[in-house]
Design goal:
Layout lengths: L13 E3 L4 E6 L7 H12 L3 E4 L9 H5 L3 H18 L2 E7 L1 H12 L5 E5 L19 E3 L17 E3 H13 L11 E6 L8 H9 L5 E6 L12 H17 L4
Helix pairs in contact: 1-7, 3-4
Amino acid sequence: MNEKFPVILGAEMFYIKGNEIGILVSHGFMGTPQSVRYIGERLGQFGYTVFAPRLKGHGTHYQDLEKCSHEDWFDSLEKAYQKLKQQCKVVFVMGQSMGGTLALWLAHRHQEINGVILINPALTIPEFEPLKQKSKPRYFNEGVPDIKAKNTYEITYQKVPIKAIHELQNLMEQTPAILPDIHCPVLGFKSVEDHVVPPENTEYIIEHIGSDIKESSVLPNSYHVASLDNDKDVIVESAHDFVQHLVSEKVT
C-alpha cells in the first residue's frame, strides 16, 4: 500500500544516534511519532540510540489509514527494528497504546529482543465495540485526545475510518493468544484513569505474559496518551531504570 498524501509537518519519524543500547518507540493508533517525541528525546539524553518510526497510514491523511491493514503497521515497526538492530547490540521496544500491542507482536516474533516497555497497551477499546459488525458510516469524527495535561497538543486525524477500526480490533483480539510465548522482560505502565483503554488491559498482559521478569507501574496523573501527559517524566525515569537494571545484571 502506497500513501497518497504527504507527511504532516511534525509527524515525521525521528532517530537519535547514541550508544549500543537501542530503544525502538512506537506511537499508537491515529497518532504519530510526535506523541512519543518527548519520551524519545529524554531517553536519548541518557545516551540511548532511539528510533521512532511512523507507522504506515499515520501522520498523512485518514484516507491513507483507511487502506492499511494491521500487518502494514506491524511491518513498519519490524523494519524499524531491523534497522536499529544493525546499529545496537541490545534493543528494547516501547509502545504507547496500539504501539504497545505491536511491541508485543514484535517480541513474539523476535525472541532476541531484550525487553518490552508498554504504555497503556490496547487489548480492548470499549468505545469501538458496537462497530464490530458495521460498515457504515465510512468515517467517524475523532474526539479530543485523552490527555489530562492542559495546553498539550497531539497530531492526529479529525476522522477515523471504520475499516481501520476493524483492523485494530483484529489485532487486539489476536494478541492474548501470543502472550504465554513472550519471554523477554516486560515493564507495563497503566494510567489510573484512562478513557480509551481500560487499565485492566495492562494488568491482563502482566498476568498472562510468559516473562519471568515483569513489572508494572501506575501513572496517577495521566489519561490514555500518557507519553504526552503529566507523568511522562515518570515513564522516562522508570524505563531508564528498567533498562539499566537489565543491562547491569546481564539479563540481556
